[in-house]
Design a protein that fits this description.
CATH class: Mainly Alpha
Order of helices and strands: HHHHH
Radius of gyration: 22 Å
Mean pLDDT: 81
Oligomer: single chain
Number of helices: 5
Largest sheet: none
């Protein structure tokens, strides 16, 4: 029993780390880091803690999707449409980061609040790119049906 656990652990580790090298894995990891940086900037800023909830929620959601894709759970749990859920998560995050960043940058504030607003715009681009690359892969690709020759049967 101990030998089988020991042999399966490296295979599991390799399977889990292979996702972190893909474009989607790097993108989700970058989203987590950007949300953490925004959270720190809003935490340091005076009177801007109300804006930090967006970065907390999106950081948690990105971490959940990172673990789901890394452990290949999206193929094992079939009752949720994971690709569309991921697309709408990224799209809504991009829209909300755009709105929040514009509001933060328009208000007068200290430098950490302005930096958080700029990082919010960068995160908006990151989440928008995530939504962009996620959506085309979710459409069903149909192949053309074979047609008969124009002259009729041969």
């Amino acid at each position: 029993m101990a030998d089988s656990e020991r042999l399966s652990a490296p295979g599991c580790w390799i399977a889990c780390t292979n996702f972190s090298r893909t474009r989607k894995g790097i993108l989700l990891f970058a989203e987590i880091i950007m949300c953490l940086v925004i959270l720190i900037c809003f935490g340091v800023s005076v009177g801007a803690q109300v804006y930090s909830s967006l970065s907390v929620v999106e950081m948690i959601l990105a971490a959940i999707f990172f673990v789901i894709y890394m452990c290949d759970l999206h193929t094992k749990i079939q009752f949720i449409n994971w690709p569309w859920s991921d697309f709408f998560r990224a799209l809504i995050a991009a829209i909300l980061f755009l709105i929040t960043s514009i509001v933060v940058l328009v208000e007068k504030g200290n430098s950490s609040k302005i930096i958080a607003g700029v990082f919010g715009l960068i995160s908006m681009c990151l989440f928008g790119y995530d939504a962009y690359i996620t959506f085309p892969f979710r459409q069903q690709r149909h192949t053309a049906a074979p047609t008969d020759p124009a002259d009729g049967p041969v």
